[in-house]
Amino acid sequence: MEYLAVKHTHMAIAVLSIVLFYVRSFSRMGSGTIAKNKVVFIGSHATDTFLLISAFALMAIAKMNPLEQMWLLEKIILVVAYIVLGVIASKQQKTSIKVVLLVVTTAVIALIGKLAVTKTALFL
C-alpha cells in the first residue's frame, strides 16, 4: 500500500510539474508576467523538488537500482535533460529558439512518460 500511495503522489506531482513548465514556457513567449510571478516560480521549483524526493522514495521502497534497471537509468538521464533544457530555454531571448527548445523538451517529456509506463529501455 505504501508503494502505491507514493507512486500516485509521484504521478500527480509529475503532472503538476509539467503543467507549471508549460505555463512558465508559454508565459515567457509572451509578456513573461506569469513566469516572473514569485508564487509560480517558487511553486514550480518546490514541485520539482518534491518530484525528485518522491522518485527517490519509490526507488527505495521498490529496492530499484538504476544500474540494474536500464529503463530507470534512461529515465533519470532524461529527467536531467528536461531540467537542463528548461534552464536553457528560460535564458533565451529569441522566441524561435524558445519554440525549438519547447518542442525538444516536449519530446523528452513524452519519452519519460513512455519509460514510466512501459519500463522498457529505449536506448541503453
Automatic annotation (TrEMBL):
Keywords annotated in UniProt: Membrane, Transmembrane, Transmembrane helix
GO cellular component: plasma membrane
Transmembrane segments: 6-27, 39-64, 70-90, 97-117
Keyword Transmembrane part of the UniProt annotation: yes
InterPro entries: SirB
Signal sequence interval, chain numbering: none
UniProt name for this protein: Transcriptional regulator
